[in-house]
Amino acid sequence: MSVSGRLVRVSAVALILAGGLAGTSLAQASSAAVAHPDVWPKAASPAAITDAKTEAFITRLMGQMTVEEKVAQTIQADGASITPEELKRYRLGSVLVGGNSAPDGNDRATPQRWVEWIRAFRAAALSSRGGHQEIPIIFGVDAVHGHNNVVGSTIFPHNIGLGAARDPDLIRRIGAATAEEMAASGADWTFGPTVAVPRDERWGRAYEGYAEDPEVVKTYSGPMTLGLQGALVAGKPLTPGHVAGSAKHFLADGGTESGKDQGDAKISEAELVRLHAAGYPPAIDAGILSVMVSFSSWNGVKHTGNKSLLTDVLKGRLGFQGFVVGDWNAHGQVEGCTNTNCAQAYNAGMDMMMAPDSWKGLYDNTLAQVKAGQIPMARIDDAVRRILRVKVKAGLFEDKRPLEGKYELLGAPAHRAVAREAVRKSLVLLKNEGVLPLKSSAHVLVAGDGADDIGKAAGGWTLTWQGTGNKNSDFPHGQSIYAGVAEAVKAGGGSAELSVSGDFKQKPDVAIVVFGENPYAEFQGDIATAEYQPGDKTDLALLKKLKAAGIPVVSVFLSGRPLWTNPEINASDAFVAAWLPGSEGGGVADVLIGDKAGKPRHDFQGKLSFSWPKRADQEPINVGDKNYDPLFAYGYGLSYAKPGKVGALSEDPGTASAAVNVDRYFVAGRAPAPWTMNAAGAVSVKTVDAGAQENARQATWSGEGSGALNIMGQPVDLSRQTTGDMAVMIRYRVDASPEKPVSLGIGCGESCGAAVDVTSALSGAKIGEWRTAKIKLSCFMAKGADMTHVSSPFALSTTGRLTLSFTEIRLASNEGDAFCPPS
User: What are the strands, taking DSSP E only, across 326-455?
Assistant: First the structure.
């Protein structure tokens, strides 16, 4: 390089490190996404991962493999999109189960069925074709807070709660328990630990991060790796009961602009290194066997296609010797790529493509590109060596699985004890006006919709992708918060009364109200502001109702992030941030309920690992920011030993956003802002009761011309929800069957709407019976709807007679129950 060239490079590096990105040209922005390895920390995978015995075995095996077999090793399919027979033919390297995939499409499949299902894939991969030793698949799952895919497993608190615990050894023990439960069900590989550093809690994955500051992440990533995998030993596989891990999502998935899922981190390289790379060196040093790359971008360039990050930094400077895997069809988002064609990602350093439903086309195209030289054979050989290396270390070639089928390990008492300890340590006391701890001899009212709902306490990524639709019976070894409280007060001679609505038969000494966010995952959890229940403060009304009755109120707030809850805190005598505690509700009672005299059995230990906002429009807010002014600072947390006073808080949320929700269109008897419901033409609407007062509407089409029932509002972008396989869900009752065709449409302007025919669904419904239907958003996109500009997410119309009642219209996750009506 010439002197002038070096000067240009130095100037570019100086610009990047200084964070000078504003006002740059397109070319400059592109250069701002080129990493410079010399400014990154050094790390190295343990020598045991590349020991001579392992490498010699791989060399011999690769010498016998065809190019077709090598390409197949680099591709991963979802279990819902490939059969064992297809795997027998294509011999792909891996099978995974996505958030909504499961044996036979049944999210509540038994552990026994999980083992049978996985064994069928494993047998297909190992069926002999002659020529050389057959290569096992590696079976991957998102076990992100325990083995959360399988009914009966221990569900640990989500990472946001674990970050508040500040306990690395606890993290190691959680990893070990998770690995044992995975091994019992036959899985080999978890997509964790998550080492994201969420910097904007409007992001729907904020709860998957331990903290907004890398100091916690750095202390956790190594212990979690060792808990899952154990320590690597040269020439030997992982010890029984351990599984391969995957540090994710490389890189800065928590640093995207405005907290947008799969967005763009518009930050300097210095900030990228200081904040977002912090969790990777400890995980690599501890022997993490894979790294998953993020959907997101850095300064406009998708990570999946960024060679400077994947090859120069991760495999170079950070010394990572395992394999690099993509996220769900993320390669299709690289510039110039599709889901079935992406040489760019391979050449950037991707080793295994997660191609859940696109695997067959990707295999064909990748094979052709390798044979044509578009992807160098040396690059494929490197990828295959890395994949085989991990399979050897994971013990897959030996196929010794002494824990597989030991279903008693799922929800084992020892694992539940660790989870209960984690709940106790993760609780953060924000306010206590002397009401806590409660006497176990008291009569306690337990209220709120989270009181007896383990699914709500567990949050997203629990049995289903979004964590929705779960019942307490889906957690046979779990305990709700109400059940834990009832057990604790009964032991002290007291009593507990459950009432979601806050009504009671006997006036209680105190009320514990459990409320908060409903489960969500990824983009479905993205929000516009940090205000809790904007425009729909039903939980605040419950708190005020109890206060007005002269009952002391203890609020237990369930959430995947800090939220602006000033009105709710003001209406509470004590306020506890419980995060998403999982299946051991007794851990909450351990801290809230004292002995008969009211002395603590356990004190609060949790400290905020995310700053709590003073205003709803205060995101992003992070410790170390200029003019840092939170309501409760990073590290805050009261205790019985060290109490504190919280005065009356301002109830001004600051500047509110009009687009407060994109997914709820009719709930609790009304259309929430920014949506309105309109009846046009030959249709009328009236209020009716359906299990609660005025919580439903009944629409009647007279048949005297065209009539339409519309949900209307300012245009919103539902493209991410569409690619995420979301659906329009309506809970309805047919009171009079349709006489003529009925269409359900989505509007996006005068010329780009689309509709599907739902006549058969309504005609086939039993009169007077409540039912639920989910129509995939992709159905409307396939018919030409512009999902980036939806102004009417629901429009039901007909020219004939029809009477229909409904209680809920919203977006919902497709859990195998959504469909496209026949054309």
Answer: 353-354, 428-432, 443-447
**796: β partners:** 709, 744
Within 13 Å of residue 823, how many CA atoms lie on the same side as its CB? 5
- Amino acid identity of 423? V
Please give the angle made by the CA atoms of 546, 449 and 423, to the nearest 5 degrees: 100
Strand arrangement, sheet containing 676-681: 676-681, 707-712, 792-798, 742-747, 754-757
Cα–Cα–Cα angle for 398, 402, 407, nearest 5°?
Answer: 135
Burial 186-222 (b: 16+ CB within 10 A, else e): bbbbbbbbbbbbbbbbbbbbbbbbbbbbbbbbbbbbb
Is the separation of the CB atoms in 767 and 735 below 8 Å? yes
**Backbone φ and ψ of 593, nearest 5°:** -100, 120
State residue 30's pLDDT score. Answer: 58
- Choosing from 167, 269, 327, 786, which is the catalytic residue? 327
Helix, strand, or coil (residue 340): coil
Output the six-digit token pair for 692.
Answer: 């609660």
List Cα–Cα distances, 283 to 44, 45, 163, 426, in angstroms. 10, 9, 17, 23
Q: Under DSSP, is residue 416 helix (H, G, I), strand (E, B) or coil?
A: helix
Say if residues 281 and 237 touch (Cβ distance below 8 Å): no
The β-bridge relationship of strands 696-702 and 801-813 is: antiparallel
Q: How far apart are CA 518 and CA 167, in angstroms?
A: 27
815 is catalytic: no
**Of all helices (H) and strands (E), which one includes residue 17?**
helix 3-18
327 part of the active site: yes
Q: State the sign of the Cα–Cα–Cα–Cα dihedral 36, 42, 45, 47.
A: positive
Q: How far apart are CA 526 and CA 524, in angstroms?
A: 6
In angstroms, the CA 315 to CA 308 distance is 10
- 120 contacts: CB under 8 Å, gap ≥ 6: 84
Name the region of 461 (left: φ>0; alpha: ψ -120 to 50; beta: rest).
left
Q: How many CB atoms lie within 10 A of CB 542?
A: 23
Using DSSP, how many helices (H) and how many strands (E) does the chain show? Answer: 24, 28
Residue that the structure tokens 């998770």 belong to: 178
Q: Identify whether the C-beta of residue 530 lies closer than 8 Å to the C-beta of residue 574.
A: no
Q: Which residues of 597-610 are buried (b: 16+ CB within 10 A; e: fewer)?
A: eeebbbebbbbbbb
Q: Which residues of the chain have pLDDT under 50?
A: 1-29
CA trace torsion 806, 812, 815, 818 (10° rounding): 60
Cα angle 240, 246, 250 (rounded to 5 degrees) comes to 170
Which of the following is catalytic: 522, 531, 539, 568? 522
Integer Cα distance of 322 and 388 in angstroms: 9
The pLDDT of residue 656: 61
Question: What are the C-alpha distances in Å from 392 to residues 61, 289, 431?
Answer: 12, 11, 52
Map residue 94 onto helix, strand or coil: strand
User: What is the reported pLDDT for 823?
Assistant: 74
Distance CA 276, CA 200 (A): 13
Length reported for the chain: 823
- State the pairing for strand pair 94-96/138-141: parallel
Q: How high is the pLDDT of residue 19?
A: 40
**Three-class secondary structure of residue 70 per DSSP:** helix
Q: How far apart are CA 325 and CA 493, in angstroms?
A: 55
Overall pTM surpassing 0.85 (yes/no) = yes
